[in-house]
Design a protein that fits this description.
6-stranded antiparallel sheet, about 45% helix, about 180 residues
Length: about 180
Amino acid sequence: MDTAWQSDFRERMQGFQGPPDDNSMPVSIKIRITSGCFHRAHSPEAYRLIDDFVIQNGGSIPRYQIEEHESGPEILVCLAVTTAGLTFAKSLIDLVTAIIKARSEGIKRGDGQTEPLELIVRGHSKNGEYFEEKILRVPHDQILTAKAIEEALSQSTEAKNKSARKAVTKKKIVKKK
């Protein structure tokens, strides 16, 4: 992996997070096209729909930021870390769903890029280790429900959550001694 990109990503995530907090973890949810471009210039119809969704619903989403990239939007969000793992708010899942649906609808309205999308979760664990997991591949004509996206996000973080819980448990044991 490109170390310059990783350094830039780490800085972007730390800048978004603010001061470290044991109860939350900054995470990137990337909606990336597999080839070509998925940004305003190449997908204006999709971005009109995304913008409309954000205007109507953005206030209900816990602290988040959308970064626009040539390869597709990236949602930066701080997720709560609980004993059950990372918690994805319904409003965040609705935003991811809206972006994927907007892409499909944008193509119907004339946007030209038809390559599949990948839904990727990435960030840094509490011990600073980079992780990235491609959790879904979505053809442009496939419509996903919010429930399918929620299940994919939940399953993708399950293994990370187990290791995060172990790390938290180890910290507590060390502190008790």
